[in-house]
Structure formats: structure tokens, C-alpha cells
Specification:
Blueprint (H helix, E strand, L loop, with lengths): L11 H10 L3 H13 L5 H6 L5 H27 L12 H16 L3 H14 L2 H6 L3 E10 L6 E11 L2 E6 L10 E6 L2 E7 L3 H10 L7 E6 L5 E5 L2 E4 L7 E6 L1 E5 L5 H12 L5 E8 L2 E9 L2 E6 L4 H10 L4
Antiparallel strand pairs: 1-2, 1-6, 2-5, 3-4, 5-9, 6-7, 7-10, 8-9, 11-12, 12-13
Length: 324
């Protein structure tokens, strides 16, 4: 069990858990928008209203653009990597939130209401796949740096860190079977790293020649994955602490050519296809006679949890529930 690292107001966490536990994952996301617009909204008011409004959903999209990256990283590290799932036993979301929320509040400096609403939404959506899809990638290799400096191009070594853009649309289960309103999540990519050029003179010339965004570009081959990496430079600075001929760069554009030297990857794909995968099945989790979750399984492996109120959940129940 994770121990709280800061003191919350007595009973504050429990009150937020009671409120958010009764909301759908979509309502909890909309609640983020409500809190970003009216942070001082009393819990008594929140309990009495449906936070799902166009205004709140739009505000949630803006708030998530700024805060989702850090919250998702916390969720992936503190919950997904450390949790142990037992097949056939549904998780106690309230207990998970009770353990994680105080740590998130302390480490991320985000108010408890936002944290609790996000965690319930994340657990409801089962964002485990997002952890892998949007994980930070690191590339290193040798290539060229090009720009509007005198030499136009120099050989260089690169270390680049790339956190992919998060592009998702979250469906409102209450609208089923219509697609009336979705919450669109758009978080820009984050790209930064270091470039080592041949000499301090090259470093100085590159730095002083940079005048506008995208006047400089780089290309190199990653030594580990044999992928060709191309990027446009958004900003550049001389990283004197790392060395007289080392530059720091940032970017918001990175192209990874996955088919570069692709013989090994193609062979891996052919090998993967040769192995017959286990059948995917669906298992309904019931509480008090009501289906509260649908588990997608591949053999004994739990792939994801599906909300029975969502479009896909309704279709699965319709297909797999025998007619009386």
C-alpha cells in the first residue's frame, strides 16, 4: 500500500472519492473541465449536477492538453507497472484511488479534485495501452546537421528523446448508439536532445546562424533500432556544461522511418504471423445482477476492460447474450 506523503484536509479525499465513484469515466473527464473553470465549486453542488456539458467538455480538452502528460506518466509508473492483476477479480477502484491520489497531489502539485477525477476516468477507460503507445522513446546515432550556416551541413552525433503526441477521442457512453459528443484529446509531442558537432567553431556558427524556426534540420540512423530519424529544429542553444562543441535542441516534428533497413523487422513480423494466436473471448463481470464490466481475454491474459455502457460494450452484450 502506498503511504500518503502529504496531509490533506480531514475527510477531503474520501468526499471526492464518493463523488467521482458515482460518475462514468466521461463524466469524470468533464468534471476536470468544470473544476478548471470553477475551481471553488462546492462538492454539494457537484453531487447534484451532471458535469457533462459542452462547456465543461471543451474546458476539459484544454486542461488535459496541459496536464495529461504528467498525469498519464504517473498512472503508468505508479499503477500499471506496479499493480498485480488477478484474473476473474475486479479491481476496487476506490481503494486504488485512495492509495494513489495523495502521492499524485504531492508529486504533481495538482489539486485533489482533479487527481481523483482523472484516476477514476483512467481506471474506467483502462489506459494501460496508452502507457506503451505514448511512452518516451530515445534515439542515438550518427548523421548530419543542416542549416543556413556557412558550411550548410556538418557531421554530428545525436541523442534525441521523443515523447509522442497524444491524439485520442473518448466516446460518451451515455450517447450510445449515437456519436453525439466526444472528448478530443490533443497533446503536442515533446522532442529534445543533444547534438555533438566537430568543433566549438561549428557549435558557435550553428547557434548564431539560427534565426527562425525550422531553418535547421537533422538526420541520423539510430544505432539500436536501425531506424532513420529526421527532425526540424525549433530552438537551439550551446550546452557548454556538456562540452564546447555540444548543442541542445528542441523540436515538435520528428519523422521515424520504420522501414529503413527493415529486413530484420519483416522477418520478425513473418515469425509472429506464423504463430497462431489464442482465441479472444469476453467475460462479463456482474454485481448485484448487473454487468459492471466486460473483460477482453486472450487465453488467460487480460487484454483490457470494456465499459458495458459504451458502444462496443453494448454490441458485445448483444452478440454474446443468449436470447430467451
Amino acid at each position: 500500500m502506498v503511504k500518503p506523503v502529504m496531509n490533506l484536509a480531514e475527510g477531503e479525499l474520501e468526499q471526492w472519492i464518493q463523488v467521482c465513484e458515482e460518475l462514468t469515466y466521461f463524466q469524470n473527464l468533464a468534471l476536470l473541465g468544470l473544476l478548471s473553470l470553477k475551481a471553488d465549486t462546492p462538492l454539494s453542488i457537484i453531487k447534484a449536477i451532471d458535469p457533462n456539458s459542452s462547456e465543461n467538455v471543451s474546458a476539459a480538452e484544454r486542461w488535459l492538453k496541459k496536464n495529461l502528460r504528467s498525469l498519464l506518466q504517473f498512472y503508468c509508473v505508479a499503477y500499471v507497472k506496479k499493480s498485480v492483476r488477478v484474473t476473474g477479480i475486479a479491481i476496487d477502484k476506490a481503494e486504488v484511488v485512495k492509495n494513489l491520489a495523495p502521492v499524485a497531489v504531492a508529486t504533481l502539485s495538482i489539486p485533489v479534485g482533479f487527481v481523483v477525477a482523472f484516476l477514476f476516468a483512467a481506471l474506467g477507460l483502462v489506459l494501460d495501452n496508452w502507457c506503451q503507445r505514448y511512452a518516451k522513446q530515445r534515439y542515438a546515432g550518427e548523421g548530419t546537421y543542416e542549416g543556413n550556416f556557412e558550411q550548410k551541413q556538418v557531421a554530428a552525433f545525436f541523442e534525441i528523446t521523443h515523447t509522442p503526441a497524444i491524439i485520442e477521442e473518448v466516446e460518451n457512453p451515455a450517447a450510445f448508439p449515437l456519436k453525439v459528443r466526444m472528448l478530443a484529446i490533443k497533446v503536442p509531442a515533446e522532442i529534445s536532445g543533444m547534438v555533438k558537432v566537430p568543433s566549438p567553431a561549428d557549435s558557435s556558427e550553428i547557434f548564431h546562424s539560427f534565426q527562425a524556426r525550422y531553418s535547421h534540420r537533422f538526420t541520423f540512423v539510430d544505432v539500436t533500432q536501425s531506424k532513420k530519424i529526421k527532425g526540424a529544429v525549433e530552438s537551439v542553444y550551446q550546452d557548454i556544461q556538456e562540452g564546447p562543441n555540444v548543442l541542445g535542441v528542441t523540436s515538435n516534428e520528428l519523422n521515424v522511418e520504420t522501414d529503413y533497413k527493415r529486413t530484420d523487422s519483416l522477418q520478425s513480423e513473418l515469425t509472429r504471423r506464423a504463430v497462431q494466436p489464442e482465441e479472444i473471448t469476453y467475460h462479463a463481470v456482474e454485481k448485484d445482477g448487473q454487468v459492471t464490466a466486460i473483460w477482453e481475454m486472450q487465453g488467460r491474459k487480460h487484454l483490457r476492460t470494456i465499459d458495458p455502457r459504451s458502444r462496443q460494450g453494448q454490441e458485445i452484450l448483444r452478440l454474446y447474450t443468449p436470447e430467451e
